[in-house]
Write a structure and sequence with these properties.
By secondary structure, the protein is an alpha/beta fold. It has 24 helices and 24 strands.
Length: about 1250
């Protein structure tokens, strides 16, 4: 194996794609520090499978992707590919798998070829390994490089600064190097795989032993249960037969009952029709009489009402006439009284007229005297008025002067008071304004504080209320949700329990059927043997059934049509069929059928006249689909076959020319005269079994999915219930706290509002007072200034007014004296005039009174005369009304007599109609009673028929549910059994069977013997029913009488008692026992196979241990010798060696290194200097390479600690090993570079980006 090429792209500092070619000799990589030389070594170790980011000098694996520079963007991925030539691989299928096959493969042939391994890493974290461009596993790369010295932990790669780690590593790690060189690593890997396989086999053996133990226990129990199930099945068949007899008898009885009931019903319905016609006739007559009676009653009622109305009208007229007569008398009396009063008033009129004339004359004379006195008084009053006018003028002047003086004095006094008051008010208002200003500022501050406090309290209260509402709503929602969750959990738990029970039942059935299918239990022995062969002795493509997919519900039909062909094995040629037959014959396995594909494909199709599709039939190829590569050939097996639903349809299809027809129940027609049907008891069809398995799998998956969903939902609901409970408790506590907070906040808000309102009202008052005080101060100042100016003006006006007042008072005194003299004269004249006025007024008043009395008297006379005339007119009207009412009263009396006669006539007709109605009603009631009696008979007949029909329907459903047959089918079956003489009581047949030797089952014989007494009782009942009680019961058993003489109920009771004595029966026990027996045989074989596998694996482990020990001992000895030689060569003398720490356990012992440089004593390598350690490690590595050269070796600056002399010896050592190993060196030493066949320079012209320069030196 050689390293040919290395491709790097996007790895660390290699942003661009770089390629390195390697010669067979030495390749050196040089360059300044930090340019990326070691990244080449990292790339090789990374592609070989390094998983540690720290080993690659990074923190995480994504750090190996180029992360960008100042001029370049980061790359999306890193890729390294390593091409190896002449790679040796064992010649076996697939890659080597240390866990499969014989672990010792050294003698197998190998092949040599070129291989390219690669690794990609994307920045998203995805990674992939490749071999020759195809994605593979890391294990595949490890297997490819195993025992080559390559790999992450092998000795072919020595990185910078790690040469000393070989010496400082643990002894077990040093042993790993020696084992890699010895080539035992693959054996140890295979040994680990073999141990795992051995452990798994032992675990499987334990499980198989447990299963066998359980199967054996079940097998013993099922053996007894199967025997009991066979007895139970036989008794159930017998019971089914006699139940058919019982149902047939009951069927016959019910049909007779229905026929009798229908005959009675027909007769009763004829009588019912006649009675109903009679009732209808009578009811029609009654209805006519009822209508006439109603009309007569209406007429009588109308006559009575009219007569009653006439009587009321006559009474009202009589009362009106009496009332009018009384009014007429009263009017006569009033007219006489009014006439007398008018005469009296006429007598008083003349004296009154005379007194009125005398009074008028005296009044005229008094008025003349008064007029002359009045003229004298007027003249004197005029003089007085003139004097008085002069006094009043002077008084007005004096008053005006006095008013002016008083007004001036008053004004001056008021102005002085106003001035003084204004000054006092100004001072007071100024002080008040100053106080109000201070109080207003304080109140403003208090209002702001109160408003803020109130708003804050209201805000907190609103928040608290909203929070309370939210909490209450959340609590209600949480309670509702909790209730709903608990109800939902109960429902889900019940659903899951039901589903689990369903799943357990289906899985048990599915396992049973799968084991049958896996063992091909429904196949014949020969076909099962051929299909189970895995040695390759018989080449086949499975059975025909393996390549068929059948539509649901047609499995029985296809099983019946194809029959044994379903088990036929499909082979390619007749030679394969012959080989298979020899295989079967050699093992005496029985018969086996084959389908030869090449012959089937070569056989030409038989061209026959196409048969038209029978009515209601489907071609077999329509319900069956062939699969696999040979589907077209196998479809030939499905030709000329049809599937129908029923027996009759099959007969019709055969009659129409079809060649093979099957029903969905499994009957097959090959010709009108060739019919097959039925099934083997307990046998299952191949396709039917597979269909049931598929259905059970689907149902089990659906139920399991439903259970998983329900379990998940239950867990989720439990979590939700717990969370809901905690949340509800938290919400209740939170709600209680919020209620308390709300109460406190409401009180705080109320206090804040009251305080704010109080301060607001006080502020309004203060503001009003401030405004008023300011206005008052301005007005006061204005009034004080006006008062000062007015005082000066009014003082001058007051002095002028006082002078005018003195002059006016003098003139007033003179005028008053003159007026008083004139007034005395007027008073005397007025006294005389007053006396005259009084006398004239008295006369005029008397005259006026007399005149009024005369007018009143005339008016009263006229009124009384009018009243008398009005009363006479009213009396005349009343007399006319009385006459008219009297005439109408006579007419009403005559009409009333006529109406009373009509009422009497209507009553007589009404009584006659009622007597007729009563008579007809009596006849109708009699007819209805007769009809009811007939209908009762009809109803009883219908009930009898319905009861019998219901019993018959119930009997039919019972028959269908219990027997799966119709009543007619049961009757036909009983008839056939009667004709065949099969209706014999169980004890009689048991005796016959015992005589014939048919009853071979000891348990069944025991059942027959135990039932003799009950059978004898049944025979006695049968004899009693037949009237033959005197004959012995044995005669019944010998003669085998017809079934009518047998007590069927007794026989059924006998059979049921026998079944009950069996107790619980597992009807699946027979099939389960057979399956369990096969499973026991299979498990026993499996156990032996496991024992053989354990033995073989143990032997393989022992061979591996032996080979590993031999190889390691050989390699350890040779490497130790080579180590001594290389050490002496590198140090120019001295000695060194490898020592096993535990000599007694060579296979697990660690390895220690001892070294003795020239001139020093033997000591542990940890006590050497740095250079000595490096040379010692190199000596060990070269010793390993001498024993087992690695295809190539990477050395990263391991010569750095060496001086020139040691460099020379190091180079000589390398040159001596170039023949077997390819070296790639990273170095700074010129001498090391000189031995290189090819030189690569690594530069970093662009910061952070490495580039390669290649130089071929030879």
């Amino acid at each position: 194996m050689r390293l040919s090429k290395l491709h790097i792209a996007g790895f660390k500092s290699f942003a661009e794609r770089a390629e390195l070619g390697f010669d067979h000799g030495v390749t050196a990589i040089v360059g300044p520090n930090g340019c990326g030389k070691s990244n080449v070594v990292d790339a090789i170790t990374w592609v070989l499978g390094e998983q540690s980011a720290k080993s690659l000098r990074g923190e995480r694996m994504e750090d190996v992707i180029f992360n960008g520079s100042e001029a370049r963007k980061p790359t999306a991925s890193a890729e390294v590919r390593l091409k190896l030539t002449q790679v040796r691989r064992p010649m076996r299928p697939g890659d080597a798998d240390s866990g499969d096959g014989d672990p010792l493969l050294d003698d197998q042939p190998v092949i040599t070829r070129d291989v390219e391994i690669g690794r990609r890493l994307y920045r998203s974290g995805e990674s992939e390994y490749l071999i020759d461009g195809e994605v593979c596993r890391l294990r595949d790369i490890h297997d490819l490089l195993m025992d080559s010295g390559l790999g992450v932990k092998a000795y072919a790669v020595i990185e910078q600064g790690k040469i000393g780690q070989i010496l400082s590593s643990r002894p077990a790690e040093r042993r790993a190097l020696i084992e890699e060189a010895a080539g035992v690593t693959k054996y140890k890997a295979r040994r680990r795989a073999a141990e795992l396989k051995l452990e798994a086999a032992q675990q499987n053996l334990t499980r198989v032993d447990d299963v066998i133990y359980e199967v054996e226990k079940q097998r013993n129990a099922l053996k007894r249960q199967a025997a009991r199930a066979r007895r139970y099945r036989k008794l159930r068949e017998e019971l089914r037969k006699w139940e058919q007899v019982q149902i047939a008898r009951r069927y016959e009885t019910l049909r007779a009952a229905i026929a009798g009931a229908e005959a009675r019903l027909e007769s009763a319905r004829a009588r019912e029709v006649a009675a109903a016609a009679r009732v209808a006739e009578l009811e029609s007559a009654i209805e006519a009489v009822r209508l006439e009676l109603a009309a007569a009653e209406a007429r009588a009622t109308a006559a009575r009402d009219e007569a009653h109305a006439r009587e009321l009208a006559i009474g009202r007229r009589q009362q009106q006439i009496e009332f009018d007569r009384q009014q007429l008398e009263e009017l006569g009396r009033q007219a006489d009284a009014f006439a007398a009063e008018a005469d009296e008033l006429e007598a008083r009129r003349e004296p009154l007229q005379a007194s009125l004339a005398a009074g008028r004359e005296a009044a005229v004379r008094a008025r003349e005297t008064l007029e002359s006195a009045t003229s004298a008084v007027q003249a004197r009053e005029q003089d007085y008025q003139q004097a008085l006018g002069a006094v009043q003028g002077v008084e007005r002047e004096a008053d005006e002067a006095r008013a002016v003086v008083m007004s001036a004095a008053t004004t001056l006094s008021a102005l002085a008071q106003a001035r003084d008051h204004a000054a006092a008010v100004r001072d007071r208002v100024a002080a008040e304004r100053e106080r109000l200003e201070i109080e207003a500022r304080e109140l403003d501050a208090e209002v702001a504080r109160a408003r803020e406090a109130c708003e804050e309290a209201e805000r907190r209260l609103d928040e608290a209320r909203a929070a309370r509402e939210e909490t209450a709503a959340a609590r209600a929602a949480a309670e509702d949700e909790l209730v709903a969750l608990r109800a939902e959990r109960t429902r889900l738990a019940q659903d899951r329990a039901i589903r689990e029970r369903e799943l357990a039942g289906r899985e048990a059935r599915l396992r049973s059927l799968e084991e049958l299918e896996a063992r091909r239990a429904t196949f014949g022995d020969a076909a099962r043997l051929v299909l189970a062969d895995d040695t390759g002795a018989v080449r086949h493509h499975g059975a025909v059934a393996d390549h068929l997919v059948v539509e649901r519900s047609f499995e029985k039909a296809v099983d019946a049509l194809l029959g044994e062909r379903l088990q036929h094995v499909i082979v390619d040629s007749a030679a394969d069929a012959a080989a298979a037959l020899e295989f079967v014959a050699a093992r005496d396995a029985g018969r086996c059928g084959f389908v030869v594909l090449d012959a089937l494909m070569a056989e030409p199709a038989v061209h026959q006249a196409p048969v038209p599709a029978p009515a209601g039939a489907r071609a077999l190829s329509d319900v069956v689909r062939t699969t696999g590569p040979h589907a077209a050939a196998l479809s030939r097996l499905l030709e000329d076959a049809w599937v129908v639903e029923s027996f009759a349809a099959a007969q019709a299809a055969i009659a129409a020319g079809a060649r093979r027809v099957a029903t969905t129940h499994g009957e097959v027609f090959a010709a009108p005269w060739l019919v097959e049907g039925g099934s083997r008891q307990g046998a299952r069809g191949i396709l039917e079994t597979r269909a049931e398995i598929q259905q059970l799998r689907q149902e089990a998956e659906e139920i399991a999915g439903a259970i998983d969903a329900l379990t998940s939902e239950l867990a989720d609901i439990d979590d939700r219930i717990a969370a809901g409970q905690r949340r509800l408790e938290h919400l209740v506590a939170d709600l209680h706290g919020r209620e308390k907070d709300i109460v406190a906040l409401e009180a705080q808000v109320a206090r804040s509002r009251d305080e704010r309102e109080r301060i607001g009202r006080r502020l309004e008052v203060v503001t009003t007072e401030r405004t008023r005080a300011a206005e008052e101060q301005q007005a006061t100042e204005r009034r004080r200034e006006e008062a000062i100016a007015a005082i000066a003006e009014h003082e001058a006006q007051m002095r002028t007014a006082e002078d005018a007042l003195s002059a006016a008072l003098t003139r007033l005194q003179q005028a008053r004296e003159a007026a008083e003299a004139s007034m005395r004269e007027v008073a005397a004249a007025r006294a005389e005039q007053a006396a005259l006025v009084e006398r004239a007024s008295g006369l005029e008043a008397e005259a006026a009174r007399l005149e009024r009395d005369a007018r009143d008297l005339d008016e009263r006379i006229a009124v009384r005369r009018g009243d008398v005339a009005r009363l006479h007119a009213r009396a005349a009207e009343l007399r006319e009304a009385i006459a008219a009412n009297q005439t109408a009263l006579d007419d009403d009396v005559r009409t009333l007599s006529e109406l009373r006669a009509a009422v009497v006539e209507s009553d007589d007709r009404l009584a006659e109609l009622r007597r007729d109605f009563d008579a007809r009603d009596t006849d109708a009631r009699s007819a209805r009673q007769a009809l009811d009696a007939v209908r009762s008979e009809v109803m009883q007949a219908e009930l009898a028929r319905a009861g019998a029909a219901s019993d018959l329907s119930h009997l039919a459903s019972t028959c269908s549910e219990s027997l799966g047959l119709t009543l007619d089918e049961v009757e036909q079956a009983v008839t056939r059994m009667r004709e065949a003489g099969e209706l014999v009581p169980p004890s009689t047949r048991a005796s016959a069977d015992a005589v014939d030797g048919d009853s071979a089952d000891g348990d069944e014989e025991e059942d027959a013997a135990s039932g003799d007494a009950a059978a004898g009782e049944a025979r006695q009942h049968a004899a009693a029913e037949a009237g033959e009680s005197d004959e012995p019961a044995t005669a019944v058993a010998v003669v085998a009488p017809p079934d009518v003489e047998v007590d069927v109920e007794g026989v059924i009771a006998l059979l049921r008692r026998r079944i009950e004595r069996l107790g619980p029966v597992n009807m699946m026990a027979i099939e389960q026992f057979d399956e369990l027996e096969e499973r026991h045989t299979f498990l026993t074989a499996q156990r032996q196979d496991l024992l053989d596998s354990i033995s073989q694996t143990g032997e393989a482990i022992r061979r591996i241990d032996k080979t590993t020990k031999e190889r390691f001992s050989e390699a350890f000895t040779q490497i130790n010798e080579h180590f001594q030689q290389t050490f002496a060569t590198l140090f120019g003398g001295g000695r060194a060696g490898l020592v096993l720490i535990d000599q007694e356990n060579e296979q697990e012992s660690g390895i220690d290194i001892i070294a003795q440089p020239p001139g020093k004593r033997l000591q542990n390598v940890q006590l050497l200097s740095g250079g000595e350690k490096a040379l010692t490690a190199m000596a060990l590595m070269f010793a390993i390479f001498k024993h087992r050269p690695s295809p190539f070796c990477l050395l990263d600056e391991i010569d750095a600690p060496l001086d020139d002399a040691n460099i020379g010896r190091f180079i000589e050592m390398l040159q001596g090993m170039q023949e077997h190993t390819q070296f790639i060196l990273i170095t700074h030493h010129r001498k090391t570079m000189e031995i290189a066949d090819r030189l690569y320079g690594v530069t970093m012209e662009e910061p952070g980006v490495s580039k390669l320069i290649s130089l071929q030196l030879s």
